[in-house]
Amino acid sequence: MNMLGVVFRELVGLFVDDGALALEIVAVVALAAISASLVPEIPLAAGAILLFGCLGVLFTNVTTVCQR
Amino acid sequence: MASWVHIAPAMTAAFLASLVEAVEALTIVLAVATVRGWRPAGLGALAGLMLLALIVAAFGPLLDRVPLHLLQLAIGILLLLFGMRWLRKAILRSAGLIPLHDEAVAFATETAALREQARNHEARLDWLAALASFKAVLLEGLEVVFIVIALSARRGQIVAASAGALAACLLVAGVGFAVHRPLARVPENTLKFAVGVMLSAFGIFWTGEGLGVSWPGADLAIVALAALFLAVGRVAVNVARRRSLEALP
What we know:
The structure holds 2 protein chains of 2 kinds. By secondary structure, chain A is mainly α. Chain A has helices at about 1-15, 20-40, 45-65. Chain B has 8 helices and no strands.
């Protein structure tokens, strides 16, 4: 059971290290999905939201670590 | 037939990511072998590899039944979480905000822990040593399996990604067993930075495809996406380093 617990924690840890970063990435993907469903005739808009949203989230997350 | 332009990014990313994971697993296996000999270390590693093979054999074929767009979206999101986590950590390490991962220290820590166990549980130490080796191979191997599966989200790339991962594992195993010590001189953070950049680029690409985005230049867009992540990552390192220096009293 302990071993299963370790494996489970490691599996979750593969994707979630800093909870705020993970939540912000999911929020950006949700925004891109909303854009893709509302404006399907401009699919690149969803791509732009996804790309620049994730780059912004990464940059903000890293630079705010310095202030903590 | 897939051209090199299409398979090279997946193969390179799988190779570099697996190199990092294999180095980490090798450190633990070597620590076990140093304290207790090659038999428990080898048996534990072999059992870990067999369980990984079983996991791949059990879950691999199920992926073919998932609709492609859904698979790309799910794997894209997981790759974003996974790749950006690596990239964030590599940026913070490059900026000096968190310490670098040191294989020599990891080896010394694992060896000390095993020697401590030797004092307390002499009778069942072989079993405990084999378990440590098994756990290292299984946990690091799971990351390799995920990366290979994720980089193969487009049908037909599984062979390229698997070949990249297998080459890295064989290379690390070969060098590790030849030198009999942890591969502490591998530039692990640079590799993690590069892998974080590539996996994040793949994550954006697959998530976009899953949402119906047709990227300009098709697969070549991955290279442009990676270049953007690399540029932002380098700027983030400089900004984080400057801010941390400014924060010093």
